[in-house]
Design goal:
Helix content is 43%, strand content 13%. The protein has 448 residues and is of the alpha/beta class. It has a five-stranded mixed beta sheet with strand order 2-1-3-13-4.
């Protein structure tokens, strides 16, 4: 009975948490005009018929995103006269999901297509809200499917490997550093830290007294679990194994949180307490922080505003580099007529063409979801001028899936609360993570 009741209320109680991966970059560099339009290959309706299909989407980065999306849809409609595709801005990620939840709970007809957090997959599966992507993937072909970044596809699958979503607006954290500050401190600006010890040593040299400049800042408000996950991976372990199992008490995870605490408590290279997500890029741009860990979605904003040379680098850990992924995927929803689902698949095919993906990445700051997008002339020309963007792609070899479980929002909050408890000195890292493990285990036990 508990499991049945849980499924009924899952939509209502899912904690709304915008992925930190969706930080706001500056206004886009160009309108999405460079991408060619190709007719899609999925089955089409009978001659003379026109299928209406809607896509609900959130906005979680800066710039005229709505105009960009409308531009893509206008091009799609011009190339596919038997389909009228409409993009509907639905607010934040939480608001977009809530609107779909309300429609489904009321027995209404949902849009056939939606952009939702990649980690929403289990909430959507537990409420039988989404269609598998088998039919759509078969029309794309194996070569296209294999072209999606494997690190992003990890959050598109269930525990059996079945695909339920397609990567769209995805990003990761990255290490930003001030090359001028490195040179001033006697560090090689072309050689960022490769290990955790090297990171701490560099931060000590970069730190100035009385808070004039911190060696490093890592935000810890909002969704602190997200940046912590990258530190844990670099220490040797992700923070979860499956949709029903978290690994908060693994030695590597505890070590990662201890290391984060020590940046302020012992090394004195970072502010004590909670560091604000929204003001961290500002501190970096103002010279108040020589290094920061932040989303790749902030890269455009930082590069456009910085008065010094900006370096980007992989996030180092005691066991190697590590990074978690974030952002949103494309989902096909149940409840829509089959013709609309087929049309939604064709929209997905268009939005994930390499040229479109490349332009979307350039304009928004999201990491291109397909490998071949980096082979387009558009992306080659862009990254030749701004090679920092290639670091965000190359770091994906060290990336693992963002924590995604049943009761996902609540589990993420439990981990985030533990991170903050340790950073503020309320609990030791081990005690905070042990308590978090116990809470998460109780929540997830009903799904095992």
């Amino acid at each position: 009975m508990n499991k049945f009741f849980n499924k009924r209320i899952l939509f209502a109680c899912t904690a709304g948490m915008i992925a930190a991966a969706c930080g706001a970059p500056a206004a886009p560099t160009a309108a999405p005009t460079a991408a060619p339009v190709k007719p899609t290959e999925a089955a089409k309706p009978a001659a003379g018929a026109q299928t209406n299909v809607e896509m609900y989407y959130p906005i979680a980065v800066g710039g005229p995103i709505a105009q960009m999306i409308d531009g893509y849809f206008a091009k799609f409609n011009a190339a596919n006269p038997d389909v009228k595709a409409t993009a509907v801005f639905a607010g934040s990620y939480q608001e977009t999901l809530a609107k779909i939840q309300t429609t489904l709970q009321g027995g209404g007809k949902p849009p056939a297509l939606a952009v939702l957090l990649s980690t929403d997959i289990w909430t959507l599966l537990d409420t039988n809200a989404i269609e598998p992507m088998d039919a759509c993937l078969s029309k794309m072909g194996d070569a296209v499917v294999k072209d999606f970044q494997p690190a992003f596809m990890a959050n598109s699958k269930d525990d059996t490997g079945k695909v339920w979503a397609i990567p769209f607006q995805r990003s990761t954290p990255v290490l930003y550093y001030n090359k001028a500050a490195f040179k001033e401190a006697g560090l090689d600006p072309e050689k960022p830290p490769q290990t955790w010890d090297a990171l701490v040593d560099a931060a000590k040299k970069l730190t100035k007294p009385n808070g004039e400049r911190w060696g490093i800042q890592i935000p810890s408000d909002g969704t602190p679990y997200w940046l912590f996950q990258s530190l844990a991976i670099g220490a040797g372990s992700n923070v979860f194994d499956s949709s029903t199992k978290v690994t908060f008490t693994k030695d590597a995870v505890v070590t990662a949180l201890d290391n984060w605490v020590k940046l302020s408590k012992d090394a004195k290279v970072s502010p004590e307490g909670i560091v604000a997500w929204g003001t961290t890029p500002d501190a970096f741009l103002a010279g108040k922080a020589a290094m920061i860990v932040h989303t790749t979605g902030s890269l455009s904003n930082i590069l456009n505003k910085a008065t010094f040379d900006v370096g980007t680098a992989f996030i180092p850990g005691p066991k190697g580099f590590g990074v978690g992924t974030g952002g949103g995927n494309l989902y096909i929803l149940k409840g829509a007529p089959q013709a609309e689902k087929d049309a939604a698949c064709r929209v997905i095919q268009y939005l994930t063409q390499p040229e479109v993906v490349a332009q979307w990445s350039i304009d928004t700051g999201y990491v291109a979801s397909r490998k071949s997008a980096y082979d387009t002339q558009l992306m080659k020309d862009f990254t030749a001028k701004k090679p920092q963007y290639l670091v965000t792609r190359d770091q994906l070899q060290y990336a693992q899936a963002e924590i995604s479980t049943h009761q996902g929002g609540q589990v993420q909050k439990i981990l985030g609360d533990a991170v903050q408890a340790a950073l503020t000195g309320k609990q030791s890292a081990k005690d905070a993570l042990t308590e978090a493990q116990d809470k998460a285990d109780k929540l997830l036990s009903q799904f095992k």
